[in-house]
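Sat 14:20. Reprocessing the chain from the morning session after the first attempt stalled halfway. Input below, unchanged.
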Amino acid sequence: MNASPDAAPARSTTRLGRLLAAWLILWPSVRLGTWLSLIGALYWMTAVQFDAGRPDFYYLADAFLHGRTWLQHPVATLDSIVIGGHAYVPFAPMPAIVLMPLVALLGTAAAAHLQPVTNAALGVAALWLTWRLSARLGVEDHRQRAWLVILMGLSTPLWWVVQRGGVWHQGQLVATVLTVLAVNEAFGRRRAGVLGILAGLSFLARPTLIAAVPYWVWRSGVTAARATGRAIARTSALVSTGAAAGVLVALGYNAVRFGQPLESGYGLAVLPAFLEAQRRQSLFSLTHVPMNVDYWLLHLPRLNADFPWLRGDGFGLSAFIASPGLLSALRVRLDRDALALALTAALVMVPNLFYYGGGWYQFAFRYALDAYPFVIALCALAVARRGLSWRWRAVITFGVLVNLSGVYWGYLAIGS
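Finished this time. Tokens:
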């Protein structure tokens, strides 16, 4: 029997319809991929021209692969510890753990040469997770999600730490990815074991994030409407166990290196004279709070006769200037989720404000990046309920331009 002459056009129409439907389904992912690719390319372009000269974590990854906790040779004098002919990295070890597969595959030198790519990839991972988080918090409009991604990626210290790289910043990049991943889990499946593991890993990247553990406990099960005492105890134990495992790893790491579990190395590293003077007052002290509050909220740029006419001085820049879009968090409805996020952001900031280092060298106060994933979640809750007007988009754009000037100033100030 011969086919009907109308059969071929019908099949073509059906096939075209399926392709169109598939395209409509994939279109949001295509747009997201485009956005992230553009920001990733921007990250890479601004990072590849700058050599921090501090690939310490790549050499520490190689040391771990060979069963050592020390480097055979110090990478530099400052922010390094040399004891008995062994060089130690004073910073938390999680970045080196993350880099171990890359170093094992390519070798230390080749992997270190790809640091701009690695840092850009970490930054993009944080932004992809920010996109997912905004969706979970109810931001349905893809354009508004994109603005939240821009806020996080180009109007916070995330851009600066991606660009600068080096041993001082990779810990913050890894910690930011882990924290945004944990907030996604907290508003997703809320698995206590997963949140506990992420809490422990975050501590091994940035010890200040231990302050977020109560939030992970709360989100993992206490928020359930009919949570029993046994269920609360179980979820609390799972989260606490994961966090405690990270702490125990850190204590063991310290004991192997310095013979004392509580000696992290931060108090032993060689420092510039002005930072050494601050450290003598204690690693954590109330005396450091005014300085850090200034760097975070009050510090103003310097006027200059040449472009860019407003420049940083390396100690910080008011968040009201560098990240004004974060103020959209103040528009959130004050329910228990918002209050818990705000309290957690404040708790994470406490050890950062008491710390002696001040984040130097920086454009905006980079230590605040530890708390900003929780603030971004507040922004997403506000946008989900009230939208994002053109005025707020203009505010975010202003912050992006400020941070772009910071990237440009960074090259002028220290060279590329």
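The chain has one domain: 53-414.
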